[in-house]
User: Fold this.
Amino acid sequence: MNHPSYGKPKNRWPYFLLTYPAIMILLLFFVPLCIMFALSFFKRIQSAFFEPAFVFENYVRAFSTFFLQRIGVSLWVAAVAAFICLLIAFPFTFFLSRLRRSRQVPYLVLLISILSLSEVIIAFSWSLLLSKTSGISNLLVALKLLDAPVSWAPGFVAMLSALVYISLPLAIIVLYPSLSRLDVSLTEAATTLGASPIVSFFNVVLPNVRQALLTTFILVFIFVLGSYLIPQVLGRPEHWTLPVHITDQALLKSNMPLAAALAMLLLIASAGLSLLTLRLGRSQL
Amino acid sequence: MMILKRFFFSLVVLYLVAPLVIITGVSLNAQKRLFFPPQGLSLRWYFEFFSQAEWYLPALRSLSIAGLAALIAMSIALPLAYTVWRYDIKLARMLYFLGLAPFALPPVITALGALALWIVLQSFGKPYTVVLSHAAFLVTLPLATISLGLQSMNAESIEAATTLGADNSTVFRTIVFPYIRPYMMAGFVFAFVLSLNEYIIAFMVAGFTVETLPIKIFNSLRYGYTPVMASVSVIFFLLATLLFGLIGKFGDLPKLLGADSSSD
Assistant:
C-alpha cells in the first residue's frame, strides 16, 4: 500500500467505516453461499421448496451419469471456446497494444461495450446473423458462393461462434495490461541481432507472457462455463451448459436442493481455478 | 508481414462488428420482418420502443434498478477500498477479497445464492431484491477502479498535508476524494451498464414478477421475434458506447484497463 501512514488503526473509526460494507457483503454474498451449501444437503419436497435435512441424495444425483455427461459437455465447450478465443485474442491484443494510445481508445470502447452487452442481445444478434432471412448466407448467395440462403443455427458451431464472440473482449482486456507493458526493446534487440520476427516472437515475446496467457485461458474458461443464454438460443439441448440445468432445476422443476448441489460443484471447480490464477499472478511478480 | 498483420486485425474487427451491423440493419426494416439487408428504411421500431408500454416500462425498470444498484455498490466499495488502502486491518482485506469474488465465479452461483437468501427471508420476487443482489454482485467494479485510483496516488502530497497538520478527514476531503472521483465515476458507469444488461440474477430472484429489459428481450425471443428487439439492442449498445466513450475521452481508458501510465 502506498499510503504514507499505512498501519494499524489508532482508534475505532476505521472499524466503524467497515461496518456497513461488512454487513452488505456478508449478508448479500457470503450468507447466500452458506445457505446454498446447507440447501445442497436438504430434502426436496413436492409442492414446496425444500425441507431441512442432512442427506447426500442431491450429490448422488449430481454425480449420476446424466449430470456427469452435462458437466463433461460444459467443460468441453468451455475449453474449446477458451482455446479458440485465446488463439485470436493474443495476436490481436499484441497488435492493439502497439498502436498509439489515442488510437487504442476507440477499439477499447468497442470492446468494453460488447463485453457489457447482455448475453441475450448477443444471442439474438447471432441468431439473426446465422438465420436464413437475414444471415450471412444471403451475402454468400449474392457473391455466388452459395445457391440458396441457409440457416446455420442452432448447432454446435453456431453456439461456439457466439461464445467465442462474447468472451473475446474479455480475453483481450485481460491480456491487455501485460502485453502493453511488454518491453518492445526486447524484440527490437532480438531483431537487430538478426532474429526473424517469428523467431523473436517465439523466443522473446512468448516466454514473457506465458503466465498471462494461462491466466486469461482460465478466466475465459470460467466465463464460458457460466454462459446461460447462448447455449439455449444457439445450441441444441445436448449442448446446454451447467447453468441452464441449474436454473432449470431451481425454477422450473422446483428442486432447489439439487440445483444447490450442482451449483456447489460449479463453485468448487471455478473457485479452485480462480485461486490458481491468483497463484500464477503472484509467482509472476 | 505488415499486410498480413493488417488483414488479421481487420478480420477480427469485422467479426466483432458483424452482429452489430446486422441488428442495426434489421432494426431499420419498414415491415414487421427481420430482413437483412432491410427492406425499406424506417425508424418505426425505435418509435415503437419509446411509445409502447410493454417495451418502455421494462426499460425504465432496468434503468432505475441499474442506477440504484450502482449507487449502492459504490457506497459499499468506497469505505472498503479506502480502509484497505489506509489501514492494516485483516477484516478489511478479507472483505475486499469477498467483494472481488463474485466476478471470479459463474454468475449462476451468485444468482442461486441470492434466490436462496430471498426465499429464506421470504422476500422472493420483490423488486428491491434485484437491486440489492445486483449491488452485491457488481460491487467488484467500483472496488477495483477505486483501489486502482488510490494506488496510483502520489504519496508525497498526502505526506506533505499531514506534516502541515491536516487530519484524516481533511486529507480525504481535499486530496484523496478529488483525486479518486474519476475512478469512482468509471466504477459507477461499469456497474450501471452491467446491471442494465444482467439477465440471470434478475431472472432468478424476481423473473416472474419484475420484468427487466433483458428478460423482456429473452421472452420475445421465445414467443415471437419483432424488430423492436433489434432497435432495443442498438439503443443499448449505443448507450454503452456513449458512456464508455465519455470515459475514454475524459479519462485515461488505457490506464484504467491496466496499461502502463508512462508511454505517450
